[in-house]
Design a protein that fits this description.
The structure holds 2 protein chains of 2 kinds. Chain A contains 10 helices and no strands. By secondary structure, chain A is mostly helical. The mean pLDDT of chain A is 91. Chain B has a 6-stranded mixed beta sheet, with helices on both faces. A 4-stranded antiparallel beta sheet of chain B has the order 2-1-4-5. In chain B, strand 4 and strand 5 form a beta hairpin. In chain B, helix 7 crosses helix 8. In chain B, 41% of the residues are buried. The site of adenosine-5'-diphosphate has 13 residues of chain B, from strand 1, strand 2 and helix 1. Chain A: It is a multi-pass membrane protein. Chain A: This is ABC transporter permease.
């Protein structure tokens, strides 16, 4: 009861505060809309907004999936080979420290206005947390489990599949949850730079026409999208690693 | 038969070299229950891991049934202080793990797993996850797993030391019963004198720095043994006192 009620109360109070501020401070509509205005926009233009939400969601999901497909095997190499690790780890840290926003315009130059640059941007933001967490997970097999595998005559492959990888899964999911929180941001950044669809595109458009209610509606949908995706990853975690949950 | 022949082992650590074992010569007869006792750091685990083939000695060698040990053998099982159960596998799947890695016959392994779980009172818990079991039950599962492949040798490194005294005694008594049904050679490391006297045919008392054998004590108490009142309580007390003295510090002896 409290677990549902208190967060809802928090949201309600924030919205009430926003509304109150708009009225008390006499802020103009075109600067900050009131909650009913945002709701109105959502209700009136839901079909279009939903379409753009789906565009952003689909870009995000593809980028995130690609980050898993590329990141996990990369982490396996990093954890498995000392030489590979020494060779690419410093490079990885350097590349990760680059502001990825700076790459977005170049991606548009290379790949145009379609989904391509958005997917790559999501991939760029998601790749590192997934690689770092998975590598850490694969390297943290307890000593007695490693010795058990050896004493049971398990080969390298069997040791990986039956011992190291399952052991690493809880930490892999730490990385996935960090990544999915960044994923939507990546898609929106890429949409800002050049797009003809998606919630980021809507926000840019509404800025140009001073339709702040529409921009706020898009932001509401963006956060809903982030929350849904985060809980989807959490659900996958519950299903795949039920043994790791406490209680 | 296990023969340990002039085994030395040195670890190269940050603080220089540590001579963990020096000049160990020891023979364990087939079917014997041997316990190794000694204070912490005297090289018991190191010696056991060398016998298991998990560690190669700096010099000397271990021969099991005429064959020098170079790597872990299929007919030697190891049981650790921590249960080392895989937390994502059910009790039954944990016990069946050696069947996968050693490619045992699946049907026979399942039958045997069922028997072992029954023998250790775990029949109702086959589907449970390790985290749902008490520490004593987890060690029972680890014991079943170690016995699944019907090993000729079972090496146990302080397997009960993390358990409370009563559970420990319970498991020791269970282990004696299991032992009567197998023809397995046991090497059992402990720092508990009670456990050593309860279980062993012979107790090897080790000394530290460098790790070596101080004395071998024969436990001539008939089985089954328990720690309660029984006909041989006097002899048990005598042996315990002797071991106690051997284990206390000083080089007076
Ligand atoms: N991997 C290692 N590296 C360096 N020193 C070690 C290592 N393992 C054990 N030692 C040292 O070897 C000695 C014997 O250790 P160990 O066999 O674990 O003793 P025990 O099991 O009797 O407590 C100790 O002094 C310990 O510090
Ligand atoms: Mg030890």
């Amino acid at each position: 009861m409290r677990r549902v009620f208190l967060p809802l109360l928090g949201v309600a109070l924030t919205i009430a505060g926003w509304w109150l501020a708009v009225i008390v401070l006499e802020i103009e509509d075109y600067l900050v809309p009131t909650p009913p205005q945002v709701l109105n926009t959502l209700a009136e233009r839901w079909a279009v907004l939903l379409e753009h939400t789906w565009t952003t969601a689909w870009e995000t999901i593809r980028g995130f999936a690609l980050a898993i497909v590329l990141g996990v095997p990369f982490a396996v190499l990093l954890a498995g080979s000392r030489i590979f690790e020494q060779m690419v780890y410093p490079l990885l840290i350097t590349v990760n420290s680059l502001p990825k926003v700076a790459i977005a315009p170049i991606l548009v130059v290379w790949m145009g206005f379609g989904a391509g640059p958005k997917i790559v941007m999501v991939l760029l933001l998601c790749f590192f947390p997934i690689v770092l967490a998975t590598t850490a997970g694969l390297k943290s097999t307890p000593a007695e489990i490693v010795e058990l595998a050896r004493s049971l005559d398990a080969g390298r492959l069997k040791t990986f599949w039956a011992f190291r990888l399952p052991q690493a899964l809880p930490q892999v999911f730490v990385g996935l949850k960090t990544a999915i929180s960044l994923a939507v941001i990546g898609a929106v950044i890429a949409e800002f730079v050049g797009a003809d669809a998606g919630l980021g595109f809507i926000i840019v458009q509404s800025g140009a026409s001073s339709d702040t209610a529409l921009a706020f509606a898009a932001m509401v949908l963006l956060s809903l999208l982030s929350i849904v995706l985060f809980y989807a990853v959490q659900l996958a975690e519950r299903l795949l690693v039920p043994w790791a949950s406490e209680h | 038969m296990i023969s340990i022949e002039s085994v030395d082992h040195r670890f190269r650590g940050r603080a220089g070299e540590v001579q963990a074992l020096a000049g160990i010569d020891l023979t364990v007869e087939t079917g014997e229950f041997l316990t190794l006792v000694g204070r912490s750091g005297c090289g018991k685990s190191t010696l056991l891991r060398i016998v298991a083939g998990l560690l190669t000695p700096t010099s000397g060698r271990v021969v099991i049934d005429g064959e020098p040990v170079r790597r872990p053998r299929r007919d030697v099982s190891f049981m650790f202080q921590k249960s080392a159960l895989l937390p994502w596998r059910s009790v039954l799947a944990n016990v069946l793990l050696p069947a996968e890695t050693l490619r045992l016959d699946q049907a026979a392994a399942r039958r045997r797993a069922g028997e072992l779980l029954e023998l250790t009172g775990l029949t109702g818990f086959q589907k449970a996850l390790p985290k749902e079991l008490s520490g004593g039950m987890q060690q029972r599962v680890a014991l079943c797993r170690a016995l699944l492949s019907e090993p000729r040798v079972l090496l146990m490194d302080e397997p009960f030391s993390a358990l409370d005294a009563l559970t420990r005694e319970e498991l020791s008594i269970e282990l004696q019963r299991i032992r009567q049904e197998q023809d397995t050679t046991f090497v059992f490391v402990t720092h508990s004198i009670e456990e050593a006297v309860l279980l062993a045919d012979r107790v090897v008392v080790m000394r530290a720095r460098p790790g070596g054998i101080r004395r071998i004590v024969e436990v001539d108490v008939p089985r089954p043994r328990s720690l309660g009142h029984h006909a041989h309580a006097g002899r048990v007390t005598e042996l315990s006192a002797e071991l106690h003295e051997l284990l206390l510090p000083n080089e007076a002896a």
